[in-house]
Amino acid sequence: MDTTAEVERLAASTYVSLTTFKKVGSAVATPVWVSSDGALLYVWTQGDSGKVKRIRNNGHVLVAPSDSRGALQGAAVEGAARVLDSPADLARVSALHRTKYGLQFRLFDLGAKVFRRNKPLVAIEIRLA
Fold it and tell me: What is the pLDDT along the chain (129 residues), one digit of tens a residue?
């Protein structure tokens, strides 16, 4: 598999289905926005979300292009995810998302900051296998 081509294919989608795994092994798929720096994929989310908890426990993920409701629109690819929470990483991923999603991301980010004031935002880095 050419990982660069897969990253480009997935990053071209407005949404991807990010599948994480519970401790008991069952899969949980969530549609999310995704951006890329050309080598890795990035997701922006609340630090207390279920997907973050599952990734901290088990970094194995599946990623596939999807629509906003999570209906798959292409083949899934395996990957390894990790949570990024340093200010430098968050600024970099926020900039990638702002570039791709524009005003839509700015409004989402503002809403997250206003309505979830004490809840940290984090990024998820995904390296395709």
Answer: 789 999 999 999 999 999 999 999 999 999 999 999 999 999 999 899 999 999 999 999 999 999 999 999 999 999 999 999 999 999 999 999 999 998 888 787 777 777 766 678 899 999 999
Domain limits for position 120: 3-128
Cβ contacts of 109 within 8 Å, gap of 6 or more: 44, 94, 97, 121
- Tokens 């906003």: give the residue: 68
**DSSP track, 41-63:** EEEEEETTSHHHHHHHH--EEEE
- Count structural domains, the chain: 1
Q: Mapping DSSP to helix (H, G, I), strand (E, B) and coil, where does residue 12 land?
A: coil
